[in-house]
């Protein structure tokens, strides 16, 4: 039995029809985790769940019946999960979070949002200003008290996740103020081959980590690649 099923974590990916959200759902479902793909449109979520099964069948294994994945409306997905991952465009973040906040019951909320200028028609290598300091800190302001908020997956290539012939090579910088929540997320990060979770400090460090996405977009453009990532060197071998 794999680690995800042993730990009984149920993961809702809000925005699971988008590139990053779909990639995370795909990799975690392959590792045996129970996944709820969330969307504002339930039919789109169900279509994404079916596409995930077809992707696995075509590229990895014909045993799609073993996948624990379903598509739901966002609030329904969040209500069933112990870990809720927000993978939505920045302009939609606040409204979607308000729509699911009543469904966050003893769940860890993981925000992957990056306030890229491209989301409002600007350049993808520039960030928008956020009054709270970062997209993740905006999430904390809008989340019910007592809900642990983490920021992660900003330096992870969605293309790399969706290409099942490719093993990502990337550290995942996790920011947050709840140590127990971080440990839970670390175990889920490790379910995806090639990824290593790194504790990047308190949630306020998301202000820096979010900007790495814009940096990697610039690197990808310059070198004409899609899979660039971040590795932290000089750490103990047992990290």
Describe this structure in words.
The structure is a single chain. This protein is α/β, with parallel strands linked by helices and 239 residues long. The protein has ten helices and eight strands. Strands 3-2-1-4-5-6-7-8 form an eight-stranded mixed beta sheet, sandwiched between helices. α2 (19-30) crosses α3 (42-59) and α5 (90-100) runs parallel beside α6 (135-142). The radius of gyration is 17 Å and the shape is globular. The model is unreliable at 1-7 (pLDDT under 50).
Low-confidence spans: 1-7
Write down the Rg. 17 Å
Give, in order, the helices and strands.
Answer: HEHEHEHEHEHEHEHEHH
Query: Main beta sheet: strand number and arrangement?
Result: 8 strands, mixed
Q: Approximately what portion of the residues adopt beta-strand conformation? A: 15-25%
The helix/strand class is alpha/beta
Tell me the total number of β-strands.
8
Q: What spatial order of strands do you see in the largest sheet? A: 3-2-1-4-5-6-7-8
Please state the overall shape, judged from the principal axes of the Cα atoms. globular
**Tally of helical segments:** 10
The separation of the N and C termini measures 24 Å
Please state the average pLDDT score. 91
The helical percent reads: 25-40%
């Amino acid at each position: 039995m794999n680690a995800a099923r042993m730990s009984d974590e149920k993961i809702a990916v809000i925005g699971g029809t988008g590139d990053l959200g779909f990639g995370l759902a795909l990799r975690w479902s392959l590792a045996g985790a129970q996944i709820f793909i969330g969307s504002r449109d339930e039919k789109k979520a169900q279509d994404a769940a079916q596409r995930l099964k077809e992707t696995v069948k075509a590229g990895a294994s014909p045993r799609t019946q073993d996948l624990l994945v379903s598509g739901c409306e966002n609030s329904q997905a969040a209500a069933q999960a112990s870990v809720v991952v927000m993978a939505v465009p920045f302009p939609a973040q606040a409204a979607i979070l308000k729509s699911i906040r009543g469904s966050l019951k003893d769940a860890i909320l993981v925000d992957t949002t990056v306030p890229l200028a491209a989301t409002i028609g600007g350049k993808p290598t520039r960030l928008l200003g956020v009054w709270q300091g970062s997209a993740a800190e905006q999430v904390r302001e809008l989340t019910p008290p007592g809900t642990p908020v983490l920021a992660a997956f900003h330096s992870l290539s969605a293309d790399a996740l969706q290409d099942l012939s490719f093993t990502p090579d990337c550290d995942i910088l996790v920011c947050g103020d709840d140590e127990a929540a971080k440990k839970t997320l670390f175990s889920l990060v490790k379910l995806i081959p090639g990824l290593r979770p790194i504790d990047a400090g308190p949630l306020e460090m998301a202000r820096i980590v979010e900007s790495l996405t814009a940096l990697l977009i610039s690197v990808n453009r310059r070198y004409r690649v899609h899979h660039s990532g971040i590795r932290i060197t000089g750490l103990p071998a047992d990290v």
